[in-house]
Design a protein that fits this description.
Number of domains: 1
Structural class: alpha+beta
Distance between the termini: 90 Å
Radius of gyration: 25 Å
CATH topology: Ribonuclease Rh, Chain A
Strand content: 15-25%
CATH superfamily: Ribonuclease T2-like
Shape: globular
Helix content: 25-40%
Order of helices and strands: HHEHHEHHHEHEEHEE
Number of helices: 9
Length: 270
Amino acid sequence: MSLRSIAVGLLLLGSMVVLVTAQDGAPYWPSEHFKPQQRAHVAGKFDYYTLVMSWSPTHCVTAERGRDDMQCSRGDGHRYGFVLHGLWPQYEKGYPESCRIGRRPFVPQLVIDQMLDIMPSRGLVIHEYRQHGTCSGLDPQNYYRLSRTLYNSVRIPERFQNPFETQFVSPRDIVTEFMRANPGLRPEMMAVTCGGPGNRLRDIRICLTREGRPRACGGNEHQGKLCRADQMHVPPVRSTRRDEKKTTSPLQPPRDRGLPRPKVIESGRF
């Protein structure tokens, strides 16, 4: 038998081994070993929710004129603090997004209008359902009904309800404040994100079971990945709408004296 015949035989044998391995479902190409195929995202198949509440003043620092007026430039003087950014289905590691649901991911105008008091951006309401809500297995109405229920279940610490002063705090300070206001929360159930000039506060993320109960977060909310800063810049809210709910926050000056000059409130001094 010639060397060429032997070589051809070995190649055929190798091809048969590859075919059998493929049919067994195991990866057989080196590229697939080092870069596994992505997990198929199926609506309703996830491990837990992350409730994401953004600090609106940070967004408004770089707001686009005309695009963000509803949130950042309202004529009635109302300004937002923590707003609902989204309710994200999560895996213990990684997350699904833009799941196929067998229909166009259309968000009715009525649903959009009903969410604008806590999610003041029409574009955000549409985007969040398309990217995250579709993976919940819920239609827009039920997804946002659940989102509102979970958002309303979290009590915002008084310190962050309507501060008139700039604050500098650590991620741990914010977690501690939320635990004081919400006794059912523990540090491992929350994470804080920051970024931009001065490490501005971006959002707080609270992990919940599929039934809406607080639970420990997965790998996605590792604090070291989201904000490593020891101190964050928290821009003030300064809402001046007359029918605004009154708070007993020592940071809020009398309304009839106009806006005070900016003052810095450091961590631990409140």
